[in-house]
Write a structure and sequence with these properties.
heterotetramer, A: alpha+beta, Butyryl-Coa Dehydrogenase, subunit A, domain 1, Butyryl-CoA Dehydrogenase, subunit A, domain 2, Butyryl-CoA Dehydrogenase, subunit A, domain 3, four-stranded mixed beta sheet, globular, B: alpha+beta, 2 domains, seven-stranded mixed beta sheet, two-stranded antiparallel sheet, 52% helix, oxidoreductase (chains A, C)
């Protein structure tokens, strides 16, 4: 069995939580933003990201010399929870904060850190992730986009797909084949940072089923990438990428994407004095509590540098099912008429949750892939 | 189904196959009117399938109509076919004149519509297709009980709105709109109409379930991952089995529900079917999307045209909450000493 | 899509149902038997089987010349439903009635029919099924039990396992390797009827987790089986066996094994006037109704000789999950204290249902095997 | 856990590993008494782990005890360890003298036990291990409120019964049984004891879940089908992932619940944990059996010793129905305007 630590928040942490909450409530009241389900993917608002940057809340855990606050992982956990619980539009800076920063801290050159991190913490520099390719699906290592060595850098040809917010982003961290395909498809891959405004880059929107624009296909036609934009070791891209995954899979964004709807459900049941409905809803809280303990425990181990690939995959596979269950439970307890433009919050949150739910168990590793990963892990233990 | 019924279904299915494709649904969702689909149905006299012959229809039954409603779901047909034909069912069942115009209806337990001195007033939300049609058949509170009323939508203020599938669901405001025709109805009749309307939605949902299932089977044959078609993976097979199960159970539920309605005995069948289909809609939408993975949540793929309809329709009309309450009340009152006796009873209830 | 017929019971059929019900109620009141969940597997009572035989209710659909009634499959369906709804102890004659009779009708010799069927219909001759072998699991064709040809018959060596009620049964229909294992393991298998009281047969109980004795391991040590006990064509045993499966998988016994508990649940909710609980329970009825339509539809097609392997597998996989769900739903709606010897019926039915539930999705083809079968079927359509 | 606590857990786990195997549990289920297990715990002074030092115990805390209860589930330990130690918790928390004898308890909202003139009368069902132990600690209705009472079971009529796991759950009838000691308790104290008892059952269940999970992982490595170990099949992998998820979530829930209890702040944690563990018990028992298939439902295999305990224990003490009601009441009354505020509040509630 995996044993995860329990986390008791300190008084300072509780204080920080209330501080973040007060800030968000103030801006919610002012109309700076509107609560939205799944806001970490679908709520891109550069102005809001800048505001968050001004608070010092991007790159919270990063070294001060790069503009960070050197706060703990648990502080960052609290911050993220508060963003998601109120459905704040954090999508623009999300990937830079969650993935690019930690990647550069671990594998980047000092030059890269000094160049990118201070921009990221200001909320002015956003990153996309260039991992999937057309038709790669769950077989992420089947990378066809290739880099050819030229003097002073690389020439990139190929394309990446499902890149969230590429249209708002300035750069993308991409996984590229820098050596010809050999016996093992995981070898010969490297991580390169590509300037999305460089010559030869074309960004084509992929409309979501709602018609909204969150995803993109990004084409590279003889795009030049200078040598200093290679992250880490050439040919080691696959392993470097894997290291990010535990961070990506275990956060509160795998549990709370539909939290605003749950909040509204409980409020509705309370208003209606529906005791039987509230009993049903309280089971949901029990599940949420269980997942949250797990997710915070993983965050704590990650901070200490421990190995948590399996519990992180479990947070993702069980947490995303939980998120998906909220609209289905809600509709059985209160009458709603889901509509994206609805006036009633519960109708709008139902619409957002229902329409976005299919993606929860697909993005960031499908549940099917995660089951296999977990099983291999526990059998090997 | 009789041969005649089967023929009608085949004719209409052929029309939808010809006329209604992904692009057609897309443009209607963006706000266009699909005149060609409407026209060809009219030309083929399919709008009056269930209208009696003396009223100029084909003299079909409710069961013909319900089988056609399955096709509305199966092809995501973007016209007010259900609305117009069901409005005529309401008119004819209450002895009023059928209408030749495009029509829609509002039949619910709680409607804020009243009738007074030959005019109708009130606001009704989520009226399907109101902005595109001419007539509204609505249940209104009269001075001495319920009335079924027909008004012209020319006399209404219409504020456009839509459901998750971008189908028109408009707010209709009537202020002393003149009554075209009216008749008293009983509470039992209203209940019966609510049940029929719920059955209609179930039939349409079952068609959308069939299509989501078919699309998924097809996709698992075409799509390869890790060097083999994905239908070879056990977890995909589990999804396929779940989908096939839901598809066959809902299809058979609709057949049985239609048979009960045809025999004018719709004791609990409408309730069971609707509850089961809402459950199936959840399972099918989730599994179909999971198998299709990323490609299935793009606007470019057609899957969402069916899943968004399922998510929308399950919230319309009398649904799970209504029917579980009805069933619970009936179970509380039955005098049978055993559940099995109750379940296998074939007593007829609605005899309208 | 599969299209299945709807079945409207005739007045005669309704009448027959009431007749069976009255008979069972009478004997229930008399104490001839006690209602039990999963009675078709765990309720073996030869005296009761004889009583049923006297009614003419075994081999109901079989030709009159063998003692049958030549009634319709739908009549038999009704009869079976009534047995299961009241949890009558029909296990002793169950397999002979459900499987052996139809098998002999289809593949048996006239001599076999004349010898066995009249005994079966009297409720005096019971059959076990010798299909699984130790370690074969879901890989049913991996048969090791072998028959060696000798003068006038075969000498059998090997063993069969999970044979329900072998200790009460007189014979077993067994799948035996009559030719050496060749390239295809499905070839060279034959169906032989073995007298369970013959020399060399040893029956060893396999205790169920409750300690109850339902299953057995049956050992064959140089058991002689005469030539006239071969069913159908030598070497064709696998295909003959498959043909039975649709009958085995689609009946009401895949839906109603825990019905007595559901009945008791509804009665309890009614007594308590628990409207919210009754609303929940009514969803269960909706599922039951859906499954029953499907199961009856399959029965109708089977009667007409149609192909229903896929919908039959669906009845089994979905129906058995439904049966399993009843105790789990019950415990959330009413307080129970499950106990096999409890006085309160609901406590006893909870115990029987809970303890027997694990087997529902294993026996007669695990859900996992059925998913694969259904998928292959629908992809091939 | 502190090192001291970890040591205690390790000592006891070693004892159980040595002394409690499948056969031991079998013979106890058939009606024997496992004196050797009892004796070795007594010799190692493990029966008084949580008793204070001045009362002759090891001075451990509730959290030591709760961690030991996990082992009771993990090894299906067939002796009244939980009962005796928890009876002493009740006695000590209310200022009564602890007992050196084997003991059991009955703590429920509704007990038909009354105390009058120094004697106790009433019938209590499902008292664990009553036939084997000496003392009963029970909540009784006194003339002016609740009383916690100790009586000797020598003064009781005991009718044997058992749960699904064949653990003794006896009916105890007291007719003017003399009180050994007694003290008044408040309703809040009773609620607190009910919560602790529920927490104890949760801890034991979590141990049984761990074991069912471990047995299943092991089985998937050993068992081959169609020529390869079954853990290579995707559907088995799905079961393993589900089991691992439930095991790690329940284990972490227990850790967090114990931490809350240790801080004397058990606001909603006992409720959340118990509700979640009952859900986990269902998923784990079903999945573990499905993977084990036929072999797992035989008496010969040990899996059922854990699943039968899960099915039994989830019905004992304050369970889902009790806790969802409590939570619902609290949710109805909170003044926070948002659920999130309520969930992240760290206010302490029980301060006994």
């Amino acid at each position: 069995m995996f044993s995860l630590p329990t986390v008791q928040f300190t008084d300072e942490q509780e204080q920080f939580r209330l501080e973040v909450r007060a800030f968000l409530q103030e801006h919610l009241a002012k109309g700076t933003f509107k609560t939205k389900c799944d806001s970490w993917l679908s709520g891109s608002d550069p102005a809001f990201s800048k505001l968050i940057g001004e608070q010092g809340w991007i790159g919270l855990t990063w070294p001060k010399k790069y503009g960070g606050q050197e706060r703990s992982t648990i502080d960052r956990y609290i911050l993220t929870e508060e963003f998601l619980a109120v459905g704040a539009p954090v999508a623009a800076h999300w990937f830079a904060d969650r993935q690019t920063g930690p990647l550069l801290m671990r594998f980047g050159t000092e030059e890269q850190r000094e160049f990118f991190l201070p921009k990221i913490v200001k909320g002015e520099c956003y990153f996309g992730i260039g991992l999937s390719e057309p038709n790669s699906g769950s077989d992420l290592a089947s990378v066809k986009t290739r880099a050819e060595k030229v003097d002073g850098g690389w020439i990139i040809n190929g394309s990446k797909t499902w890149t969230s917010n590429a249209h708002d982003a300035h750069y993308a961290v991409t996984l590229i084949r820098t050596e010809p395909l050999g016996e093992k498809k995981h070898d010969g891959l490297s991580q390169l940072i590509i300037d999305l405004h460089a010559e030869g880059v074309t960004i084509v929107p992929i409309k979501y089923l709602t018609g909204e624009h969150h995803f993109n296909e990004v084409f590279f036609d003889n795009v030049f990438v200078p040598d200093n934009m290679v992250v880490g070791t050439l040919g080691n891209g696959w392993k470097q990428g894997l290291a990010e995954l535990a961070f990506e899979r275990s956060g509160p964004e795998r549990i709370l994407s539909t939290f605003p709807l749950l909040d509204e459900l409980i409020a509705g049941l309370k208003r209606q004095g529906d005791a039987a409905g509230m009993k049903e809803a309280s089971k949901v809280l029990s599940r949420l509590w269980g997942l949250r303990n797990l997710s915070i425990g993983v965050a704590k181990v990650l901070e200490e540098g421990g190995e948590v690939a399996i519990p992180a995959a479990l947070v993702k596979s069980i947490g995303t099912k939980f998120e998906q269950s909220i609209p289905e439970i809600t509709r059985l307890l209160v009458r709603t008429y889901p509509r994206l433009e609805a006036e009633r919050r519960i109708d709008r949150f139902m619409a957002e949750s229902t329409l976005h739910a299919p993606g929860f168990t697909i993005r960031g590793g499908t549940s099917e892939v995660l089951y296999g990963m977990v099983a291999k892990g526990v059998v090997g233990q | 189904m009789s041969e005649m019924k089967e023929m009608i279904v085949n004719v209409v299915e052929k029309i939808f196959k010809d006329k209604v494709d992904k692009e057609k649904v897309d443009v209607v969702e963006e706000g266009k009117w699909a005149e060609d689909v409407w026209q060809v149905l009219q030309d083929n006299e399919m709008l009056a399938v269930a209208v009696s012959e003396e009223n100029g229809g084909a003299g079909g039954d409710l069961d013909d109509l319900l089988n056609l409603y399955r096709l509305i779901g199966k092809y995501a047909v973007p016209i007010p076919f259900v609305e117009t034909t069901f409005a005529n069912v309401l008119l004819e069942k209450t002895g009023l004149n059928v209408t030749q115009e495009k029509a829609t209806y509002a039949v619910e337990e709680q409607l804020n519509v009243s009738i007074d001195n030959g005019t109708v007033s009130g606001t009704i939300v989520n009226v399907p297709w109101a902005r595109y049609v001419d007539e509204l058949v609505v249940v209104a509170a009269g001075t001495s009980g319920l009335e079924l009323v027909q008004v012209s939508l020319k006399d209404a203020a219409i504020s456009p709105n839509m459901n998750l599938a971008c189908e028109p669901r408009d707010t209709v405001t009537l202020v002393h709109a003149p009554v075209q025709q009216q008749t008293k109805i009983t509470n039992e009749q209203l209940e019966y109409f609510i049940a029929l309307e719920s059955a209609a939605k179930s039939a349409a949902m079952s068609g959308a379930i069939d299509k989501a299932y078919e699309l998924t089977v097809r996709y698992t044959k075409e799509r390869e991952q890790f060097g083999r078609p994905i239908h070879r993976f056990q977890l995909v097979q589990q999804h396929l089995a779940n989908l096939a199960g839901e598809a066959v159970i809902t299809s058979s539920a609709i057949d049985n529900m239609i048979a009960s309605i045809a025999q004018k005995c719709l004791q609990n069948e409408v309730a069971y079917t609707r509850i089961r289909i809402e459950e199936a809609a959840k399972i099918v939408a989730a599994s179909a999307h999971q198998v299709h993975a990323a490609i299935g949540v793009t606007h470019e793929h057609s899957l969402h045209q069916y899943t968004r309809r399922l998510w929308s329709w399950r919230e319309e009309g009398a649904g799970e909450a209504y029917w579980t309450k009805q069933l619970a009340n009936r179970l509380m009152e039955v005098e049978d000493d055993s559940l099995w006796g109750y379940l296998t009873r074939t007593e007829k209830v609605f005899q309208l």
